[in-house]
């Protein structure tokens, strides 16, 4: 990671490369803050239903958070790489850009692997897939695609990935099972992950992984939808009103398409089904378009500043918000009744549980407090212009 102190949150034209779009930072910040909220309840046994993932088929607001982030990764690629795609800068510059992309992807993957290993560092059975690992793969592959393809080819590739994944999952017989299916332990993706990764899968299931290898294929499609959105927003030959109208329209159509596709390929976050990609991508387009209209077009920026503080250091806060609770729980505290608790659990039991009649409200209060603590830290960094780049 590299820390910089150059303020980069000034609103800019949607066509300016290598500068930040304030609405994009705000939308990223909203997404990351929501991710931290749902990942850190006070008590995993008491959570409001909208803050939980759907058990299997179907979706909740929580299921949209990760695809929103991957969508934003795709949008950000177009601003980061600007006009360097399609071989515009020559072979040597292209090789340099590709190396930087691969290097960043490896760092992101390494950070995710570190979180999965910490604190035991048991390499024999640690989980290889994960959220940061999927971000790394989607970022790397989508960035390389952006450098080598044009918009039409990206649309074609997205269609191939989503249709191809649908056909694979619904038509190819699963070895050892004998037929295609979409059940948790016996679908093609679960078999593929077990075959390649063995026991290095999600500890809650052991035999399948929600960030598995095969389902990364449609997740790349999510990134491509973000790339196409970023390319559209950067077009200077279109007035802002036309760009907004186009983005809203595309978002509505994709959302409807995902809901219709659900009838033959169920919306499922764990499988990252093609219908889920369309639904989440459409809603992400509508969300980004709304932020763009309010912040960059109408100029209503004050409300967005806390989210921008989250957005400009998104990977940093996600990584540390996963690491610090584990460190705290390595510190043991003995309660007056003789119980030994991790420091994080002790703080929750001491400062939240006694003050709420309902455990579910205490759990939510603990999660919100965690989000606000991080907001305070990130706000100081934002005011000082400190951005930690991976």
TrEMBL record:
**Keyword annotations from UniProtKB, A to Z:** Membrane, Transmembrane, Transmembrane helix
| One of the Pfam families matching this protein, by short name | HGSNAT_cat
> What sections of the protein cross the membrane?
64-81, 101-119, 131-147, 159-182, 212-233, 245-265, 271-295, 307-328, 360-382
Q: Which residues form the Heparan-alpha-glucosaminide N-acetyltransferase catalytic domain?
A: 20-236
Q: Does the keyword Flavoprotein apply?
A: no
Q: What is this protein called?
A: DUF5009 domain-containing protein
From what organism does this protein derive? Answer: Arsenicibacter rosenii
Q: What is the lineage of its organism?
A: Bacteria, Pseudomonadati, Bacteroidota, Cytophagia, Cytophagales
């Amino acid at each position: 990671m590299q820390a910089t102190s150059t303020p980069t949150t000034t609103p800019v034209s949607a066509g300016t490369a290598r500068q930040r779009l304030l609405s994009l930072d705000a939308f990223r910040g909203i997404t990351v803050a929501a991710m931290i909220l749902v990942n850190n309840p006070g008590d995993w046994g008491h959570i409001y239903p909208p803050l939980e993932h759907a058990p299997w088929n179907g979706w909740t607001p929580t299921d949209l958070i990760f695809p929103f982030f991957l969508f934003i990764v795709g949008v950000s690629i177009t601003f980061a790489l600007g006009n360097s795609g399609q071989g515009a800068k020559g072979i040597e510059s292209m090789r340099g850009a590709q190396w930087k992309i691969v290097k960043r992807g490896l760092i992101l993957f390494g950070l995710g692997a570190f979180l999965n290993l910490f604190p035991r560092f048991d390499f024999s059975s640690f989980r290889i897939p994960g959220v940061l690992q999927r971000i790394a793969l989607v970022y790397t592959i989508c960035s390389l695609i952006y450098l080598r393809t044009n918009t039409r080819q990206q649309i074609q590739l997205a269609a191939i990935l989503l249709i191809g994944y649908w056909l694979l999952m619904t038509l190819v017989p699963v070895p050892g099972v004998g037929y295609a299916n979409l059940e948790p332990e016996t679908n093609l993706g679960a078999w593929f992950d077990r075959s390649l990764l063995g026991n290095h899968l999600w500890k809650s299931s052991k035999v399948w992984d929600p960030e598995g290898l095969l389902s990364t294929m449609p997740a790349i499609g999510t990134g491509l939808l973000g790339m196409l959105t970023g390319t559209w927003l950067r077009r200077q030959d279109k007035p802002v009103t036309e760009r907004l109208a186009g983005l809203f329209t595309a978002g509505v159509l994709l959302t409807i398409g995902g809901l219709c596709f659900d009838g033959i390929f169920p919306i499922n976050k764990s499988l990252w089904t093609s219908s889920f990609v369309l639904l989440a991508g459409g809603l992400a387009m509508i969300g980004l378009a709304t932020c763009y209209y309010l912040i960059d077009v109408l100029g209503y920026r004050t409300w967005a500043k806390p989210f921008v503080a989250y957005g400009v250091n998104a990977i940093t806060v996600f990584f540390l918000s996963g690491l610090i609770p584990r460190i705290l729980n390595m510190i043991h505290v003995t309660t007056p009744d003789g119980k030994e608790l991790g420091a994080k659990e002790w703080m929750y039991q001491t400062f939240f549980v006694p003050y709420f009649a309902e455990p579910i409200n205490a759990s939510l209060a603990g999660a919100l407090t965690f989000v606000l603590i991080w907001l305070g830290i990130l706000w100081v960094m934002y005011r000082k212009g400190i951005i930690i780049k991976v």
